[in-house]
Amino acid sequence: MELLCRLLEVSRSGYYEWLQRKPSLRKLHDQALKRRLLALHVKYPALGLDSLYHLIRKELSCSRKRIHRLMNELGISSVRKRAYKTTTNSKHSHPIAPNFLMHKFSFDAPNKAWVGDITYIPTDEGWLYLATVKDLCTKQIVGYAFSDRIDTNLTLAALDAAVRRRYAAPGLIFHSDPT
């Protein structure tokens, strides 16, 4: 022990005092914060730094930087699972329509070519589907529709909204993936 104390340049009495010393108030507070962080992370694994900080701050005094440091020490980070939803049915018996766009995505006049797409939005009540119609000249959304079902009626409702808002000239090209 004497050799070790000499190498570390500490007195033997100082070493033994350090062994008997109780944890500091800061260390005790950090331990309480760590316990609360772990409990919240187990209950809400998707919460990140700011959300955890605002929850803990109400119970225990702390700074955002301190919570960040403790989260790093514990290896805690937000666990988010990306939602995946199949939206296209490629196994159907419908005839495939010809592609009139031929990869031409820029037009010189509005209302000559529109494209449609569907996206899905997770809500507390389930999925909400959004169909949009975009003009390839102006790059603006000219029609849209929402539904709780992803079907042909959703695309048709968005196309109908676009036709009502804009003048659809004869020869208008509309391209949308089948649903």
Explained architecture:
The longest helix has 19 residues, at 25-43. 15% of the residues are buried. The model has no long low-confidence stretch (mean pLDDT 85). Helices cover 39% and strands 18% of the residues. Strand 2 (126-135) and strand 3 (141-147) form a beta hairpin. It is of the alpha+beta class and 179 residues long. The protein is built from six helices and four strands; from the N terminus they run H-H-H-H-H-E-E-E-H-E. A four-stranded mixed beta sheet has the order 3-2-1-4. Helix 4 packs across helix 5.
Q: Within the largest sheet, what's the order of strands?
A: 3-2-1-4
Low-confidence stretches: none
**Total helical elements:** 6
Instruction: Compute the average pLDDT.
Output: 85
Number of β-strand runs: 4
Distance between the termini: 77 Å
Could you list some keywords that capture this structure?
179 residues, alpha+beta, 6 helices, rod-shaped
Summarize the structure.
The protein is an alpha+beta fold. It contains six helices and four strands, in the order H-H-H-H-H-E-E-E-H-E. Helix 3 packs across helix 5 (64-74) and helix 4 (49-57) crosses helix 5.
